[in-house]
Amino acid sequence: NHGGLDVAIAFDSVENLRGAVLDRSGDGAGPGLGMRKPNVPSPATLGGELGDLELTGTTEEKIQQLLTEQINPAIASHGGVASLIRVEGSVAQLELGGGCQGCGLAAVTLRQGIERAILDAIPEIDEVVDVTDHAMGANPFYA
Hints:
The protein has two domains: 1-40, no CATH class; 43-136, Fe-S cluster assembly (FSCA) (GMP Synthetase, Chain A, domain 3). Helix content is 23%, strand content 23%. The protein has two helices and five strands; from the N terminus they run E-E-H-E-E-H-E. The two termini are 31 Å apart.
């Protein structure tokens, strides 16, 4: 609870939000909420080098590590998040949420960034499919 406002955070995201500050903000378009996280690691570009990231485990675990450590920190600047739904054979099914759900550039982000990063890093995968219901996006990011 933050000043009478209930804030729900996914358990697996708690560690990523340590040190963040949730506060009221106004950008001229009206009041809103903003989050400042001063200790954000500078994320590699979505299709960038893995650097020290060593992917281990099952194919699903490798994809989840890549999403958590590289992809989601990069798309978080637009309020976006990518989640692994399932892997069937060599096909990874992802769902985009937050600012990515309903965004007109979601397909570009998926193909030129997320898919490229997954295909480059995880040889067991040869296709990435977006299973997001973009019509249900309540707060898409607009550049």
